Amino acid sequence: MRAAELIAPLTFRLTDMPIEDPGPGEVQVRIEAVGVCGSDLHAFTEGAVGSTLNVYPMVLGHEPAGTIMKTGAGVTGLAAGDRGALEPALYCYHCESCLSGHHNVCANIRFLSNPHHPGFFRELVNLPVANFLPIPTGMSFNEAALAEPLAIAMHSLRLASIRPGETVAVIGAGPIGLLTIAALRAAQAGRIWAVEPLAHRRDFARRIGADAAIEPGEAAEEILSGTLQRGVDCAIDCAAGEHTTSQAIQLARSAGRVALTGIHSTPLVSMDGSAMRRKELTIFNVRRSNHETREALELLHAHAEWFRPLLTHTREIEHIDEAFAIASQYRDGVGKMIVRP
Q: CB within 8 A of 25, min separation 6: which ones?
């Protein structure tokens, strides 16, 4: 089968990879669409995702959807031709984290797209049946590819205990920030501010549900003024920039919450510890999702009109270099970039 391997920073190559028939309890899926994630862009441009260094060659991509081609022994209820979204995480189900329900921090996790665990920028993949989630007939593969990042957004809201009517600031209106805004809208949050330097992304934010979309330099004055100097109940950092975590701390009210969804480029992160202490803020660190994907698919199906405008660009796998160049440089008004293996 054909695959796109990252062989050095900013450099892909197309290659052939072997694949066996699916084993017992597995399905073999033809990959139809894969979203380009922010962590893919970190690996592509920086040679690492946080403190996890690339190991070349490697296959990225972990926001997939596809069609079953074959089923392994013992598989029931699924058949060739079934369409679905695919979970990229393989859990052990027997470590302390799994047994306590925290599967996303499984001690033995294999996350497809990490070093030594090929991701989905390839034609075929074998997966346990639990990692295949059927999608409705009317849902496109591109829409289904949003399920994995939307599940992360929904997990962040669950961690931070967002309640109806609460005010929220979302810092960064890239794909994960936009999906966070949509999840907040579905959760009936109160006023939602999006903080974003790029004009086209501010426009996306308004369209998907933000009440206001403002530039970072305006955020403190406007949000504090709009909350009578109180600050928001929760600030969610989806940008993970040099100063965005401190900005989230600045925007949150006393005894409020801050959720860190974005992935910083460096292991050590600068933040305003004094303000964090004075306000007695609770900080939530978001690690992917934890079985929210079915709920994400339900939201995608119920409100497809919210999400379709985000799907702005599609490239075939032969043009994956161009896809990553556009996405990493925020060119051409890109929202979510989809690669088709």
A: 72, 73, 74, 75, 128, 129
pTM check: above 0.90: yes
Q: Strands 2-8 and 282-285, how do they pair?
A: unpaired
**Can you give the residue ranges of every domain in the chain?**
2-146+311-340, 150-285
46-105, pLDDT tens digit by residue?
Answer: 999 999 999 999 999 999 999 999 999 999 999 999 999 999 999 999 999 999 999 999
Q: Residue 294 phi/psi, 5° resolution?
A: -60, -45
Model pLDDT for residues 173-231, shown as the tens digit of each residue: 999 999 999 999 999 999 999 999 999 999 999 999 999 999 999 999 999 999 999 99
Q: How confident is the model over 240-267, as pLDDT tens digits?
A: 999 999 999 999 999 999 999 999 988 8
Residues 257-283, buried b or exposed e (16+ Cβ, 10 A)? bbbbbbbbeeeeeebbeeebeebebbb
Q: Report CA-CA distances (Å) from 25 to 130, 281, 308.
A: 9, 45, 33
Other C-beta atoms closer than 10 Å to the C-beta of 126 total 17
C-alpha distances in Å from residue 339, one per residue of 32, 35, 86, 176, 324: 8, 6, 15, 17, 9
Residue 335 pairs with which residues in a beta bridge? none
What is the rounded distance in angstroms from the CA atom of residue 11 to the CA atom of residue 316? 16
- For the four alpha carbons of 27, 32, 37 and 39, in that order, the dihedral sign comes to positive
Q: Of the CATH numbers 3.90.1150.10, 3.30.450.180, 3.30.70.560, 3.40.50.720, which one belongs to the domain with range 150-285?
A: 3.40.50.720
Q: CB of 243 within 8 A of CB of 171?
A: no
CATH tag, 2-146+311-340: 3.90.180.10
Number of helices followed by number of strands (H, E) in the chain: 12, 19
